[in-house]
């Protein structure tokens, strides 16, 4: 009977439960996606340059567990605000507290378990889709990844069952202990933020100082190492809290005192709404800002590693293709590539010496890339005379030769002297193409053919001369971090936006009377909807902007790993804000539907 009554209650508020259920499904799906990576030690170690990334993911699991727990608390609060009047009516009709507690327990647990099972299925599907998209679109290489992870499935089920058991018990005890009148007149409206002006000013100054110290410490990581990270973490968390606990309240008070702003349309009502509830929102907004920074930072750094692949490839390789004994390749072998330059250096050799025609190097000097002090590269060109007189320059040429030639001396002769030598002519052919990305696969085929035609070449060492193989090497090194950055960034974004959404929606019931009263005294629905959009927009915008500032300073931590951490930063920001804006629109739509009756 209780199960039937629970299902009837869910059916009666199906639209609201769909919102709640979809949020819980997303939460469990994201949790599974993360655990699918965190519990796959082989994948993490095979797709990253440092084995300690496994420990990072274990720490991430703890963080995600806390975030998920907080998320479920807000979602759970949303559930209770929807149903508490119904429970009060049951009590008035004579239902005993024990039966109400069982009813609440069943409803919470059924919704939770159902959402968890569907979330795992969704997580498996999303894991597979995200993997395919990232592998195809970003051309990354990952190994030992599987969308289905038994350990992650079991961990997710156990975690969410425990969480929903606790939530069901808390819900039952909370509702049963409340007086019926309190349930009927329940209001989750927070207390207004009435604090002494001097206290507010002190907190404002403290917030600015804490953030300034934290941002400065991020620039001192190379000098202070781990100490700088600890100080930055503590001060930025404190500064973020004070931004919402004091600075935002201070700004709202200033805006309310400006008649040109406050008296325009319903701005005074909107600002008063924000001031009234902002103290209760301090913790959630602080958490959202920090998670926003983590999520956006993960995507930005992931894209940074993607950009680093091509940059390091270009810095390492001077030529797109190097062919030893190039005379063994025919013109038909080069039909698939589009050379922009092709140089042939003729060789002759005996037991002790490799001979070159000096005029060929004078006509087309040997190009070599060298790193400068500021981590940039420059191209140095060596003529035949320089190669003959500079041992270091000669060694650069030696790096392109076959292993059996490396121990021999170099001699650079005139064209006549070179032609007079009675040895067989070989060719060292170096090629640059117009578009490396377009010709990459064809260059790889020719590079592998060069290894097969020259068996003495060590593929591990000789591949550093072949740009296509150098690209593959760096792609393999950085793709794991790139994949994880995008994967985790999207997961954290979904979670933080959902937390904020349910926190806003959990207080929507108490706002119905305010909007109803305004409508009765003549406020147009258009203005009321504008007020809702502004209020929710500020609650989304402020933590987002603060998170962006955190990221801009936080990228200083990666200057040792990335040559240009701020390169193309607009792209991850755009991706992030599009997804964030979608959550904003969804929240506005649901909130408007709760506080304002639909027009017929």
Uncertain segments are 187-191
Task: Assign the structural class, choosing from mainly alpha, mainly beta, alpha/beta, alpha+beta, or little secondary structure.
Answer: alpha+beta
- The gyration radius over C-alpha positions equals 33 Å
Percent of residues in helices: over 70%
Instruction: Return the string of H and E elements.
Output: HHHHHHHHHHHHEEEHEEHHEHEHHHHHH
Q: Provide the residue-averaged pLDDT.
A: 79
Strand content: 5-15%
How would you describe the shape? Answer: elongated
Q: How many runs of DSSP E, i.e. beta strands?
A: 7
Spatial order of the strands forming the largest sheet: 1-7-2-3-6
Number of helices: 22
Distance, first to last CA: 36 Å
Major sheet description = 5 strands, mixed
Protein model, in words:
With 600 residues, the protein is an alpha+beta fold. The protein has helices at residues 2-12, 14-38, 41-46, 53-92, 97-138, 150-177, 180-184, 197-218, 221-224, 226-257, 259-262, 267-316, 358-363, 384-389, 391-398, 415-420, 436-453, 459-462, 467-506, 512-520, 525-554, 570-595, and strands spanning 321-324, 339-349, 353-357, 366-371, 377-382, 409-413, 426-433. It is built from 22 helices and seven strands.
Short descriptors:
five-stranded mixed β-sheet, alpha+beta, 600 residues, two-stranded antiparallel ribbon, single chain
């Amino acid at each position: 009977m209780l199960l039937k009554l629970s299902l009837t209650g869910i059916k009666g508020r199906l639209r609201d439960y769909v919102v709640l259920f979809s949020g819980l499904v997303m939460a469990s799906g994201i949790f599974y996606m993360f655990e699918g990576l965190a519990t796959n030690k082989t994948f993490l170690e095979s797709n990253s340059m440092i084995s300690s990334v496994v420990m990072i993911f274990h720490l991430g699991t703890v963080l995600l567990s806390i975030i998920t727990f907080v998320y479920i608390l807000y979602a759970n609060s949303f559930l209770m605000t929807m149903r508490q009047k119904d429970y009060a009516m049951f009590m008035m009709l004579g239902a005993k507290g024990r039966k109400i507690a069982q009813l609440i327990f069943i409803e919470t647990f059924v919704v939770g378990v159902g959402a968890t099972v569907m979330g795992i299925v969704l997580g498996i599907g999303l894991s597979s889709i995200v993997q395919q998209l990232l592998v195809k679109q970003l051309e990354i290489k990952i190994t030992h990844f599987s969308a289905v992870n038994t350990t992650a499935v079991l961990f997710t089920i156990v975690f969410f069952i425990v969480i929903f058991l606790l939530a069901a018990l808390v819900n039952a005890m909370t509702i049963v202990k409340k007086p019926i009148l309190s349930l009927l007149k329940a209001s989750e409206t927070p207390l207004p933020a009435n604090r002494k002006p001097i206290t507010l000013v002190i907190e404002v100054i403290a917030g600015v100082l804490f953030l300034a110290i934290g941002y400065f410490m991020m620039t001192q990581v190379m000098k202070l190492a781990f100490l700088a990270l600890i100080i930055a973490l503590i001060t930025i968390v404190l500064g973020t809290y004070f931004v919402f606990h004091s600075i935002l309240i201070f700004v709202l008070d200033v805006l309310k005192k400006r008649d040109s702003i406050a008296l325009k349309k319903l701005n005074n009502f909107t600002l008063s709404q924000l001031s009234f509830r902002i103290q209760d929102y301090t913790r959630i907004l602080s958490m959202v800002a920090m998670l926003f920074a983590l999520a956006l930072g993960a995507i930005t750094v992931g894209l940074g590693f993607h950009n680093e692949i091509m940059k390091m490839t270009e810095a390492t390789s001077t030529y797109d293709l190097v062919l030893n004994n190039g005379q063994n390749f025919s013109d038909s072998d080069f039909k698939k590539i589009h050379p922009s330059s092709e140089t042939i250096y003729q060789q002759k050799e005996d037991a002790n010496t490799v001979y070159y025609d000096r005029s060929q190097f004078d006509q087309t000097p040997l190009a070599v890339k060298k790193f400068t002090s500021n981590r940039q590269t420059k191209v140095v060109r060596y003529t035949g005379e320089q190669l003959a007189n500079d041992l270091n320059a000669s060694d650069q040429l030696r790096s392109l030769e076959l292993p059996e030639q490396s121990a021999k001396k170099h001699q650079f002769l005139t064209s006549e002297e070179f032609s007079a030598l009675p040895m067989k002519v070989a060719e060292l052919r170096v090629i640059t193409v117009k578009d490396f990305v377009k010709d990459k696969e064809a260059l790889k085929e020719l590079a592998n053919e060069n290894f097969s035609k020259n068996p003495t070449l060590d593929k591990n060492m000789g591949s550093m001369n072949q740009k296509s193989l150098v690209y593959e090497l760096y792609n393999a090194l950085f793709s794991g971090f790139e994949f994880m950055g995008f994967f985790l960034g999207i997961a954290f974004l979904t979670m933080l936006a959902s937390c904020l959404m349910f926190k806003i929606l959990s207080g929507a019931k108490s706002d119905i009377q305010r909007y109803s009263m305004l409508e009765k005294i003549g406020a147009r629905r258009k203005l009321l909807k504008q007020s809702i959009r502004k209020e929710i927009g500020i609650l989304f915008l402020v933590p987002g902007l603060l998170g962006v500032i955190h990221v801009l300073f936080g990228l200083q931590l990666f200057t040792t790993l990335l040559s240009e951490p701020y390169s193309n930063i607009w792209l991850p920001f755009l991706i992030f804000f599009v997804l964030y804006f979608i959550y904003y629109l969804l929240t506005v739509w649901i909130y408007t539907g709760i506080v304002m009756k639909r027009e017929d």
